[in-house]
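Box 3.1 A note on notation
Throughout this textbook, protein chains are presented in two layers. The first layer is the amino acid sequence; the second is a token string describing backbone geometry. Keep the layers aligned when reading.
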Amino acid sequence: MARSFSSKVGGSLACVTTALTLLMQPIAHADTQTWQSVQKAGVLRCGAAVAAPYVMRDPASGQYSGYFVDLCRDFAENVLKVKAQFVDTSWDNQVAGLQSGKWDMAMALNKTPERAKAVAFSVPATDYQISLLVNKKNPKFAGLGNNLADYDKPGVTIAVISGTAADKAVSAAIKSATLMRLPGSDETRMALMSKRADILADANDTNHLFAMANDWTHEVLPEPALAKQGVSFALALQTPPEDMAQLDAYLTQRREAGEIDKLVDKASAEILAGKKAQ
């Protein structure tokens, strides 16, 4: 009996030891050599979910444009020395596509706590935040800068789209101005144009487009910032640190040089040109 019991214990310990050994072994990933693998393949695959002005796709030609597309193409051709390939996808599949290896980079994603558990993020190429549009000739704002408190005054009316991120952010920050909640962007723009509202609060990319098309407007990026989030490239979670550092250095250099702002204006101009042609 003693010998039988010893044998069972020994077998159990052996199983435990084997299990622990397996658990302690590094997990094998399909591909952790990101840029090395890209250069070997000769192509950088970028997951492309459409959202102007970040990523746009011509339905007739299938060609992609937008400032994240420009950045992906430039990084591929001038840094990695490979071709860029844009893979059509949806926003819901961006992260899953990275995890399954369908593309090497996902374009124009906000870094959220949930996403950060699944994929790695570059430094932001640009920022999403709520901006304020005002009429340049409005005497209430003569000489004002971008301090939010200067616009939060009695007698100032701010138009927002009801229930949006802009509505929530402005509602939380504004104490003295009056909020005008309207159902859509057409209504908020008409309120500003008709001077029923002094300010239009909306996403900065949307407001930037409107400001480019209407030179009587002035866009304000308020301080403190409202609902500010970085918009980045996302890569596989196991991307080597040195590869991410290379992408970060590229984006930082282009952003600090003002080149990304120029790409944003280029994409915005393309959208405006398309609307005029319709």
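The chain has two domains: 34-126+229-277, 129-228. Residues 1-31 have pLDDT under 50 and may be disordered.
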